Amino acid sequence: MKKAFIKQLIEMAKKDKDIYLIVGDLGFNLVEPFKKEFPDRFINAGIAEQNMIGVAAGLALSGKKVFVYSIIPFLTMRAFEQIRNDLCYQELNVVLVGYGAGFTYGTAGSSHHALCDISIMRSLPNMTILSPYDNNETKMCITESINEKGPVYIRLGKAGEEIDNGAFYGISKFITPDEKCDVLILTTGQIADECLDAQIALNSMQINIAVGIIHKLKPIDKQFIKDVLSKYKYVIVVEEHSIIGGLGTIVSEIISEKKINIKLIKLGIDDKFVHEVGSQEYLRDKYGINGEGITDRIVVELKL
Q: Is the pLDDT of residue 243 over 70?
C-alpha cells in the first residue's frame, strides 16, 4: 500500500505545486522518488514527530496541501496533542498517512503494534478516517483526501489482494454468495483477506456468508450501514485492532442508535497488551483473526 501511496502522490504533485510531503526520518527506499522530483516540497523533520505536525500546520495555514508520512504509533500517539490542537482544532487540511496497521510490525513488539489508532483518531473532532483494503483503494483515498475539509488520517497496511470490487469513495462493494444468507462479516483494511478466506471455508461447509469491506470509517454513512444490516440476522465485525473504539464499536453505536434488530459479534484484540513477538501471520493466528480462527469462531458463536 505504501508504494501505491507514494506513486499516487507523485502523480498528484506533478499537477499541483501546493502538495508537500513531510516525513519523520523514515520511509527511505520509499520517499526518494518524491524527494528527487520535488526537492523543494519534501521535508525530513527528523525524529521529532511533534514538531513535524507543527511544521505541517504552518504549511497548511499558508495554503499548502500537506501529506505527513510515518509509522502509525509514532504518528498517532507520539504527536497526539499536536494533531488535536494544531490540526483538528483549526480544521487544517493535512493528510496523515500512517503505515503499519495492526500487526504489520509484529516482529518489533508491542511498541510498534497499531491496535488502538482508529479509536484514538475517532475521538478527535473534525478528523476523517480512511482505511483502504488494497492498492486501488489506497490510490482512491489519497486522491480524494485533499478534497476533505479538515485533517484526514489514512491507515495503511500491507496491500490486500486486489479485487475488482467496483469500490467508490466511502464504501467498498459487498461480496455476497449467490444464495440468500443471514450472516454478514463486516471488516476494514487488509484483514479483509482473512475474512474472504473464511468466507470460502464456510461456503465449502454450505454456510453462506456475505463479506462487506468499509474504508471510510469517519464520518461513516450510518443510513447505508442500517440498510445493509437490516438484511441480516447476524453481523460479525472483524478488525486487526482493539475491540474497543474501532469498527466494532462504530457498528454497535449504529445498531443502538438506529434500533436495528441484529446480533453483533466483535472479533479483534481484547482489552490487553500483546506481549508476543512474531510475524503478522503468527500473531493473527495467535489471536484468532486469521481465516481459520474467524471460521471457527463463527461456527461456535452461531452454533452452525
A: yes
